Amino acid sequence: MRRALFAATALLSLATTGHAALAAADTPEAPYVDDRSSADAVVHSLYSAINRHEFARAWGYFGDTKPAKDFDTFAKGYDGTDKVEVKTGPISDEGAAGSIYYNVPVAIQATDKKGEAKVFAGCYTLRQVNAQIQAPPFQPIFIDKGALKPSTAGFDEALPPSCGDGPPPPKKDTALEQAKKAFLATYGDQCDKDRQANEPEVFSIKYKDRIAQPNDPDKETRLFHFSCSAAVYNESSVYYMTDEVDGVRQLQFAEPETDIRYENNDSDGKLLSVTVIGFRTTGWAVNSDYDQNAHTITTFNKWRGVGDASDAGTYLLRNGDFSLVQYDVDASYDGEENPQTVVDYNTAP
Asked: Is there a contact between 144 and 186 (Cβ–Cβ < 8 Å)?
């Protein structure tokens, strides 16, 4: 059986004077977690036990190599500790002689009873012995060794990217995660559940703004297209994009308000006029598409299924934002597609 010396860990570096036994009334409210189904679950169970001051349970997550010379020393190491938060990272594993060894990146933030917090980071190695070759008593996954050292990074940044021979994880796409959270927070109750589960389309867009000099590098923004819902003939979407000032924000699309007149006020009759009387904005884009070559988002909203009555917008990327450049309205329910342009910023006056 492989054996390894347990390196100096944060478990004892938190030690202060006093006795570990706490009165039941002093035990902090913390969830009970006792899960041996995976390596990271064991680590979280360890700190659940520590937060609940169930030190015998915490001691039991270790194998033959313990974190202190005896149990009393281990328990006394937490006299001054109020709570410990823990994060785990991507796990790597390797097999050897009837066992699987798991390497788990770990970061903890330990807060003492004065409210002072310290961060530690490092790796735990856990071992799972093949259950088919074990004799009673059965031993589930256990902590074989570990080493956490004080970290100068904040708790959110301290977690090691990897441990052992496993490849480092891909960098987290912060902007994409922010867009997903914003979309779910705003439209989680409005969009089709099956579409919420789909990944958005993501586009990287390079551009030059109006004050750029010829030798200035391109600026870059990212566009996130979320499909929200689908009716019989219209599909609604929401777009987010990155912004140097505001981070991730939802796109708003300008639309003209129109006054539409028909002969005898009958929409099935002759169309007399379509007049723009103002503008409004909306976060919805209907039957939309992003053209990566033209840098335009187009919308096409059918007023009925055959598509002979509709409105359509074209939005062009300018200086890092999308602006309305053309809007067409087909207000005649005549069985034909014959839109007229009511807004045209493509053409000089």
From this structure: no
